[in-house]
Amino acid sequence: MAELSGHTAGGRLREGLRAYRLIAGMWIRSTMAYRASFVMTTFGNLVATALDFVAILLMFSHVDALGGYTLPEIAFLYGLSNTAFGLADLAIGSMDRLGRRVRDGTLDILLVRPAPVLAQVAADRFALRRLGRVTQGALLLGWALTRLDVDWTPLKLLLMPVMVVSGCGIFCAVFVAGAAFQFWAQDASEVQNAFTYGGTTLLQYPPTVFGKELVRGVTFVLPLAFVNWLPALYVLGRPYPLDLPRWTAFAPPLVAVGCCALAGAAWRVGLRSYRSTGS
Amino acid sequence: MVVDGGFIEVDRVEKVFEVRRRTGFLRRERRQVRAVDAISFRVARGEMVGYIGPNGAGKSTTIKMLTGILTPSGGRLRVAGIDPSRERARLARRIGVVFGQRTTLWWDLPLIDSYRLTHRMYRIPDARYRANLERCVELLELGGLLDVPVRQLSLGQRMRGDIAAALLHDPEVLYLDEPTIGLDVVSKAKVRGFLRDLNAERGTTVLLTTHDLQDIEQLCSRVMVIDHGRLVYDGPLAGLHEAGESERTLVVDLERELPPIELPSARVVRVEGPRQWLAFPAGESAAVLVARIAAEYPLVDLSVREPDIEAVIGRMYAEKAVS
């Protein structure tokens, strides 16, 4: 039995990544069929995200601090949030199209291919134009780092890449869970957008500008606070929201793994439900 | 290896859907719908079977269970010894599926790109891929189309492209859901010719659903009719006539106007001047009837009309609906 590679967990992951690569490659080629359109949308994407930060700059032209945070500090939070979210959005941001595939029946096409469905859906409509947001986030983060007055320790340095990767993982989990939900509610992509795009907008501002209840919600219910707030506040040497203990700054990897496991389980339940109801 | 009594084995398979209907703003009514109701059949390797029935009869649901898309609510299902819903991905390598109304090809890319993806995704050995592609390109007349973006292909070209895509990995069974829908006469003929050859030369098992009974007449030695989730007929196409108590029509041109022909085995259904229409059971020989008429009447010309199979099946559905 040569095809057993798909039966172990590692084998499935390898199969999934391979299918993802193949399909994402096809989408990139598809986009390149309309080269001018690709250039314009990528540029537009970059400009749109850039303008987004201009709003914050405008605010700072009137005040010196926002929620007690300076402009470079806000840029730091903003850059982290957008880089982490941008990477997740680039990788699997089109998963919210699952509802449409369920509605028009094209999901069935994916189900008769010898590859994990999650990987195929994740790579669906892979769009390089989403590099715009990542680029903007990374540039802003870079700028913030040159302006910030931080006592860098090895631990803080280590935390930087860990934070971006974990944040990306947390957002990926939100995308997957949102897509899984669409097996039942096919027009729920807007609800999902509220958590993904809405979530990243929230994280661009310091927790001090939000009400306690909201902060509690994004810490304990949908743990977006672990994307940048907690670890970033550790780096900046700022007090944590909700008087959380110091170690929570190092929890993001665990939170990300937990979220992904939950999202994966939700996905499996959703797919099983689809295959038993075919709705 | 088990002796091939059943390459596809379906034993009392059923599929029950729960349909929720909105009855008020938040109130919902739940209702169970038996889309497939305890169906059993076997298909041997190399058979070519037509699967027909009205819309909503359960055709697509059956195909979806056979391909592993849907999990049956009950019963036992095996395709090439594999339980489709449990080992969907493993089965996928051994089956080909063509959805007539949904293309699997990449819209904005040249046709060949879709095939290259299949080559890699199914891990088809290079030599086999090249041979299969060459064969499909030749027989399905795709030669000039490989570099054309799929969106520019006509419906018939795309369907041929889709069929080729489903065959590159040498599937042992090919499911076709409405493969000739919307095609013109020439394209239909090409598709049918190709499927017939595929089945004859490679022994590929073919199961096709269709609304076009000519597909069945020209391709399938066996036909299964499903209605309201139940198999109401399974057998040769010819038998369908008997099952539906159908009649053939003999059109007779006489020398002059005469009173209706009187014969025990046929009845006159229509008279128009010297022309008369006689209906007789589809199972009986026309030769005997013709000989008698020629002997007793001044016969100028005649023709036999086969029963309209659509009418036969229509009658079959109607009977079921009444009973």
From TrEMBL, chain B:
UniProt KW Transport keyword: yes
Membrane topology value: Peripheral membrane protein
Identification of the protein by name: ATP-binding cassette domain-containing protein
InterPro entries: AAA+_ATPase, ABC_transporter-like_ATP-bd, ABC_transporter_ATP-binding, P-loop_NTPase
Subcellular location: Cell membrane
Provenance organism: Streptomyces kebangsaanensis
Molecular functions per Gene Ontology: ATP binding
Statement: the UniProt record of this protein carries the keyword Nucleotide-binding: yes
